[in-house]
Structures are given as C-alpha cells and as structure tokens.
Amino acid sequence: MQTSKKRVALVTGANTGVGFQIAKALIENNYTVFVGARNLENGINAASQLGNNAIAIELDVTKQNTISAAVEKIQTQFGKLNLLVNNAGISHAGKPGRTVEEVVASNRPSIASLDETRTVWETNVFGVVAVIQAFIPLLKNAEQARIVNVSSGMGSLTLNLNPEFPYRFGFDVVYGASKTALNAITVAFAIELENDNITVNSVSPSYTATALNNFQGTDTVEEGSKEPIRVALDESGVTGQFTGPHQEVYPW
Predict the structure, then answer these.
(1) Distance CA 109, CA 96 (A)
(2) Could you tell me where the beta strands, DSSP code E, fall in the chain?
(3) Tally of CA atoms within 13 A in the half-sphere of 110 that contains its CB
(4) What is the pLDDT of residues 103-143, one digit of tens each?
(5) Which residues contact 15 (CB under 8 A, 6 or more apart)?
(6) Could you read off the pLDDT of 162-195 as tens digits, one per residue?
(7) Does the pTM exceed 0.90?
C-alpha cells in the first residue's frame, strides 16, 4: 500500500468532457486520480494523456461488480479515498446524434418513454447512490473526505418554476428530474455524513459543449468545468451546497 499522505481521488466518467477536465485539474494539484470509465480502453487512453498520476479504472455505475472491483483496487493500493466525484451521467437513452431540441421534444413528460426514463435514472440517480455507498468506508479512512455530485441547474425546482428561467422548457421527467433527484441524494448524504467529516455538495457546470448535449452547449469544456473544478478542490468544509458557474449558489 502506498503512502497515506498522498491525496487520492476517483472521478467517474472521467475519460472525456467535464470529467476529464476535473481529473486534469486534480492531477495538477498533486492528486493521484483514478480515471473511471465504462470502457477500460477509453480510460487507458485518457489516463495516458493525463500522465503518471492518472490510473485508469473500469467503472460502470450501473454495474455493481465494476463498482465493487474499483473499491477493492483502491483499497489495495491506497486504503483510502480523499475525494469522490460523481460525474458520470447521460441526458437520454434514445437514438444517438439527436439535437437537444429533438431530445426535448421526445422526452416531454406526457410522452416520455418509461424505459428511457429508467435507463437515465439508473446512471444519474441509482448509480450515484451505489457508488457513494460502496466508497463510504474508504472515504471514512481519509481526513476531510469530500463527495462532489455533478448536477445541473436544470435540476433546480425553484429555478424551473420561474417563468424567466431560460431552460425551463427543457425540464422533463427523464434528465431534468433525474438531476433533481441527484440533488436530493446530495442533501440526504450530506446530513448523514456531516458527523463523519465528509462533505457532500452538488455542482452545475455551465452550458458546456459535450456529448451530453450533442456538443450544442455554448461554452467550451474548459470554461464550463471551472466551477466543478473549484468545488472538487475546495477543502473549506462547506457541505450541503448547490452551486453553478461563477460560484453562484443555486436554490434547490
């Protein structure tokens, strides 16, 4: 087992997009980062770009066997986890390559596919719960451990009830509501783990051009990742908070 002084992080869905940028920033700040990827080859390719302090690890948040194997690997190598970033997420489970507008139209609450809804929630909601539950023992082995859930402003019920919120037209039962549920999970774990010195926060990137939105986002991945990176690196002890771009505190 390697030195206990080394800070260790796991980022799910880290082989591309916002997850990759978070992993890159953590490595630049002297973390050893496990690069979680559903496809191990993609993880290996990403880790090779990130350098010696990146370790590819197969992790599909919808498959308990890969979660358990990841726990065992990190336990064997380091015996602890300082930071868990739940970044893996999907916006839909339908035909790939559709525009945001096409996805929004097909996922209106009145016609949304229940099968697609279940698939998205398996990753965005139940997958996060499964990963957190599995890694709590390793987080408890670290001082001032942190959990960061990459959410979305689309998950805020308060914002969506404001007629002036520009993205409320896209709030649906598939993706939008899954991020609302993720925020509720953040609050639940923050309450339970506050006495264990483990912070739990939600963070929203800006509208970033990634595969999540068919690269239709308005910001570069570097710009859009700034707030998630800030929250991931934040060791102030703040817990149970939901923030977005420019450190804006979002209402739940």
Answers:
(1) 20
(2) 7-11, 31-37, 54-58, 83-86, 145-150, 198-203, 242-244, 248-249
(3) 1
(4) 888 899 999 999 999 999 999 999 999 999 999 999 999 99
(5) 35, 36, 37, 39, 42, 43, 45, 46
(6) 999 998 999 999 999 999 999 999 999 999 999 9
(7) yes
